[in-house]
Amino acid sequence: MKNHIFSLVLLICFSGSIYSQDKESPWLFGVGINSINPDDFQKSGYKLPSLSLSRYIFNNFSLGVNYSNNDVEISNENLYYYSIDGIIKYSIPVDSKILGVKADPYLSAGYGLVNFGEGDVSFGSKNTSYGPSLGAGIDFQISKNIALNTGISYKSLDEKNAYSNLQHVVGIKFNFGKGDSDGDGVPDKKDHCPDHPGPIELNGCPDSDGDGIPDEKDQCPNSSGSISMNGCPDSDGDGISDINDLCPQKAGINGEACPDSDGDGLNDNLDNCPNEAGPKSNGGCKLADLDNDGIPNIDDKCPNESGSKEFNGCPRIPISISNYLNDYSEFFFDFDSYQLNESQKLNISNLSKMLMEYRHIKINIDGHASSEGESDYNMLLSNKRSTSIKNILVKDGVNNSRLELRAYGESNPNYANIPLSERKKNRRVIISVKMDL
To answer: Is this prediction's pTM over 0.85?
Structure first.
């Protein structure tokens, strides 16, 4: 018994070197040890060999032949036993595992001869009987083409010198032969896709999309394409297959996969606003422009006031300066004086801040005098009055080139000479925006 088990272990160990076909290969060969239990409850030990050979037919059915021999003791008599049966087997289509190993159960039925005799006997011996058998078993798949097997069968015999018996078999099975796993007429050895049926002209591989390119070489097996595109379509005709095209429905130019629909230098696949031109720094979208003057806030010196590019987004005369001049365009002086009071100085400094913000603005500073005294003196006095205002603006940072100083003396009065309350209003400086740029 120990020798038989040792022999089976060796057979299993060396079986890994046997070349195996796919699981669907039609031929199945088995070898193992068997034990015989006659109906009188006497039994044999396990002994080699038990041999089987079968071929797959259809729908989980296979036909084959089994051979076993053993030594049995019946009524204290040692008998030599052998059996040969023709077998039809049905593999039960279930997906099950036992201890993590795939298990394939099956049922079998057969008919054959059994011999109980002494020593080697011939087939025509008087000890030879014939009868049916029924069996069941499980194949444990340990690799693609190798399985461990355990099975049991019952042989019904009613002839003289014959004993109905129960037979146990433990062994190993091998798949082999020129199989055609997918049934496409191309042998597995020549079939580039042995598990998927395909035409002979494509080496047994399918062509799911019917483009003449087998799925194994087709990058897009479910979408008809061309050989030049490795089986993939090019929907937009730009020379880049859809699978590699970031914009498969829009043709790019100059080798690009995507177009630049708005012409802003950013391709549509990278452009957050593909139909509206905008800078790359803003993702291809227009920059915010609160005053809608066409100059984005980031470049607009007057983002809340509509202007022009000429003045960096500001109007010719900003509202703040216009409002300022409505209130403080004239600065009045005391008789024979060009000194400014603190309130006037503060107002001029406020003008400096606005001029520093709106650097395109240039102003006229026009000095005047009343008619008392000599005209030459009054001209000089009006110049000093203009200069006193200009000096404050320059001190505050306004460039001298933006300030046009003019003196008119008493030659250009704006108020009547009498009464005095009117005449003294001519002692003034008028500030205005210079209109020529």
So the answer is: no
Domain locations along the chain: 2-176, 319-433
State pLDDT tens for residues 168-183. 899 998 877 666 667 7
Cβ neighbors of 59 (< 8 A, separation 6 or more) are: none
Helix (H, G, I), strand (E, B) or coil at 244: helix
400-403's contacts with Cβ under 8 Å and 24+ in sequence apart are 402/355, 402/359, 402/361, 402/362, 402/363, 403/362, 403/363, 403/365
Instruction: Give me the CATH topology for the region 319-433.
Output: 60s Ribosomal Protein L30; Chain: A; (3.30.1330)
Query: 319-433: same fold as 2-176?
Result: no
- Cα dihedral 425, 426, 431, 433 in deg (nearest 10): 120
Class of domain 2-176: mainly beta
Backbone φ and ψ for 6, nearest 5 degrees, come out as -60, -40
Question: Residues 342-395: pLDDT tens digits?
Answer: 999 999 999 999 999 888 899 999 999 998 989 999 999 999 999 999 999 999
**CA distances for 168 relative to 25, 155, 238, 267, angstroms:** 26, 11, 71, 75
